[in-house]
Write a structure and sequence with these properties.
The protein has 13 helices and 34 strands. It is of the alpha+beta class. Strands 4, 5, 6, 9, 10, 11, 12, 13, 14, 15, 16 and 17 form a twelve-stranded mixed β-sheet that branches. A four-stranded antiparallel β-sheet has the order 3-18-7-8, with no helix packed on it.
């Protein structure tokens, strides 16, 4: 065997001796700033994608209230983007705030694999209402009737929007209404055959009226009278009604559907009414009323009122093309337009409310409200407030209350029997060891003066978010003063890791450069701090888990800016604070006890990513060098004030349940059935469509028949659904089913 001889010099020998002596006589003490697991979820502003887009061809310039055109010398590419129902209905019923949004364009970036976003630069909120009209027979002696049309109605959903708008304005105060414009289909030939068209309000006159045409035969005179009656501050428009009257008459005519409501429309440039091409062979036409809005006050800016169902943009020109004027938003292009919550920081008086009540009032996240105000004192009164602590954990450390079970029970105000019942897998209670972890039984804790959510969470070893979640419905949790800090929403809480995985996270101070002189008093320690910089980890054995092999050690990585997280090629960034960051996803579910077998063709429980939920997980950490050598640190031999190894994590769910609407090929219907004693029944029926999985209809490709690919893809969803619905937590079914219906007064 070949060998390599190395001649050591005196200084090299001194270095080796200094390092060996330090390692034999001392523990290496890295300065841990953080050791445990990262947050499993995050709260982000909610996004609402637009559902359809319509090109708007206006014969006259249109001014939008937000931003500026990209180039004032070029025509503005007007687009009308339909908003989803769940955004439109947010402000119903009205709450303490109206949610605020920002409109953005998202474009897929091939280089990074991420969606790059930019604000929409020129836009305004709007409401588009579809209305049907019908030509009327000409009235002798009244040429204006050639430009007069009978109002048939707006559709039922649009009637609701009209009602909401009428409730927000009045005959003398039009609030946020800026303009009314009538749109119709453009000519089916030529380059501008898509979308909707308008004549420009400066070139037309239109109004709604409820008249008897046999006596009211002078629309021009009526038109002038309506114009004279308009408020002085009414914005210039082609509509000769006030905004309130036009909306009111349209709503009344649509509700009654009894006739007698008429639309007059006259184009001064062509001296005609609406173009003949928009009418079918029955003399019927579909128009769109576009109501544009402006912020009435600074506080109204970008508020999603319950009657706003679209946004009008003037700086997005590459609209996806299709066979009709209204296309699916983003269907034929790699971009999308969406509304994103623009959060506000508000102060709120608790007023005896619960966190859930405040969350509803401010479109906020109840847990986030609790976390934002975790250091404020809780209410203490004559009756007092009692909190539920259902997820407490205790780990035996070097300080009080130690390892004696009776002392631990007394320390937390419970009993030995209750602790033993909460930890049924521990058979031998003869002696607890350092770093052993216990679940605390569910406790009812009276609030004392000076208590806060963070203080109680720390004392009982419970995650702050869990403590808030368990007490989110407690009325009067906080005193009336000081006010609470609230971040408005709506927001979305989403998982950062998949089921069955935790993210091990550590942070330690970065040591300085190793001194060249071995006689330097910090030479040996600094050398070892730099050498043993790899974080080793494994799933530690305890009452709920078997021990895993050591995972691949993780080295320090500089934090990556969010905008660079998806980069396929990236250079490391400098770490400004001088700390080493460690992150590693650790799958744990395969080591959870027990691993039960499942007979038949059902998915095996050993592959269930939810195994271990409700159990105590402990990761065993250690520091090593790049060769796998380990060194003793306070993680192996704790000292007062040092972190205890194997920090316990009480595992919970992180992902959302798959509701029936997400079950592939499943349809859900319901039927109201007669009941007894004035109680009706509600019957639900599930249907399964096998057509997507039928063979013999599709051709093969490199990945197999289309039906087989569909079956394989949907099978993974059903496997996840099976695991979700067959969970037991604390000896009870983890998933419960509830139905809400507007047929019941309490659910309306």
């Amino acid at each position: 065997m070949d060998s390599l001889k190395v001649q050591l010099q005196g200084r090299d020998i001194k270095r080796i001796n200094r390092v060996r002596t330090f390692a034999e006589q001392n523990l290496l003490v890295p300065k841990h700033l953080l050791l445990g697991v990262a947050e499993a979820d995050q709260v982000t502003p909610a996004r609402f994608n637009t559902t359809a887009v319509t090109a708007w061809q206006s014969a006259a310039p249109v001014t939008l209230p937000y931003g500026q055109p990209a180039d004032k010398n070029l025509p503005v590419p007007l687009r009308i983007w339909s908003l989803p129902d769940n955004l439109i209905d947010l402000a119903v019923p009205q709450r303490d705030v109206v949610p605020r949004f920002a409109f953005k364009v998202g474009t897929y970036d091939q280089a990074t694999g991420k969606m790059a976003t930019r604000p929409v630069g020129y836009y305004g909120w709007g409401m588009q209402i579809g209305l049907a009209i019908k030509r009327i027979p000409p009235v002798a002696g009244s040429p204006a009737t050639a430009h007069t049309y009978e109002l048939v109605a707006a559709n039922e959903y649009d009637i609701v929007l009209l009602e909401r708008l009428l409730a927000a304005i009045s005959p003398t105060n039009h609030g946020v209404v800026s303009d009314l414009t009538l749109l119709y289909l453009p000519s089916p030939v030529g380059q501008a055959a898509q979308g909707k068209q308008s004549d420009g309000n400066g070139n037309v006159a239109f109004f709604l009226t409820q008249v008897n045409l046999s006596t009211d035969t002078h629309p021009p005179a009526l038109m002038l009278a309506l114009r004279a009656a308009a408020p002085a501050d009414d914005p210039p428009t082609g509509c000769y009604n006030t905004a309130y009257d036009f909306i009111r008459l349209l709503w009344e005519g649509s509700i009654t559907r009894s006739g007698g409501y008429f639309l007059y429309y006259h184009n001064f440039e062509t001296q005609e009414g609406l173009p003949d091409r928009v009418f079918n062979d029955k003399g019927e036409a579909e128009l769109t009323l576009l109501v544009s809005f402006r912020p009435h006050t600074d506080t109204d800016r970008n508020r999603a009122m319950s009657f706003m169902n679209c946004v009008i943009t003037g700086d997005i020109s590459d609209t996806p093309r299709g066979d009709s004027g209204e296309q699916q938003a983003g269907a034929a292009a790699s971009f999308t337009v969406f509304a994103e919550t623009d959060p506000e920081q508000r102060t709120a008086s608790p007023g005896g409310s619960s966190l859930d009540d405040l969350a509803i009032a401010y479109y906020a996240d109840a847990i986030s409200i609790g976390e934002q105000n975790a250091d404020l004192p809780l209410r203490v009164g004559t009756v007092g407030t009692t909190l539920t602590v259902a997820s407490g954990v205790y780990q035996v450390g070097v300080g009080a209350p130690g390892a004696d079970l009776a002392t631990i029970a007394q320390y937390f105000g419970t009993s030995v029997q209750a602790i033993q019942a909460a930890n049924p897998r521990i058979a031998d209670w003869s002696g607890l060891k350092l770093s052993d972890a216990l679940r605390l039984p569910a406790l009812q804790v009276p609030v004392k003066a000076g208590d806060s959510l963070r203080k109680l969470a720390s004392f009982y070893g419970e995650e702050l978010a869990a403590l808030v979640a368990e007490n989110r419905t407690v009325m009067g949790l906080f005193p009336d003063a000081p006010p609470l800090q609230v971040t408005t929403g709506p927001s979305v809480r989403s998982a950062l890791v998949p089921p069955g995985v935790v993210e091990a996270k550590a942070q330690r101070d970065q040591p300085g450069a190793v001194p060249r002189n071995p006689d330097d008093p910090v030479f040996a320690e600094t050398y070892l701090q730099n050498m043993f910089h790899m974080l080793g980890y494994r799933v530690g054995e305890n009452q709920d888990f078997t021990s895993s092999d050591s995972g691949l050690p993780v080295g320090p990585a500089d934090p990556v800016p969010e905008e660079e997280l998806g980069d396929k090629a990236r250079l490391p960034a400098a770490n400004a604070d001088g700390a080493w960051q460690y992150d590693r996803a650790v799958p744990y579910y395969k080591f959870a006890l027990p691993a039960q077998a499942r007979a038949g063709d059902l998915p095996p429980l050993a592959d269930n990513p939810y195994r271990g939920v409700g159990d105590l997980l402990q990761l065993d950490f250690g520091w090593q060098d790049i060769f796998g050598n380990q060194i003793l640190t306070p993680l192996d031999s704790p000292t007062p004030g040092s972190p205890v190894n194997r920090p316990p994590i009480l595992l919970g769910y992180t992902d959302t349940l798959l509701g029936p609407g997400q079950w592939p090929s499943v349809g859900l219907s319901y039927q109201v059935l007669p009941g007894t004693a004035a109680v009706a029944g509600l019957q639900f029926a599930f249907t399964f469509d096998t057509q997507p999985y039928e063979s013999g209809k599709e051709t093969n490709d490199d990945q197999g028949p289309t039906w087989q690919q569909a079956a394989a893809g949907d099978l993974s969803t059903y496997r996840r659904l099976y695991y979700q619905l067959n969970q037991v937590l604390n000896k009870q079914d983890a998933v419960t089913y509830t139905w809400h219906t507007s047929l019941l007064p309490g659910d309306a």
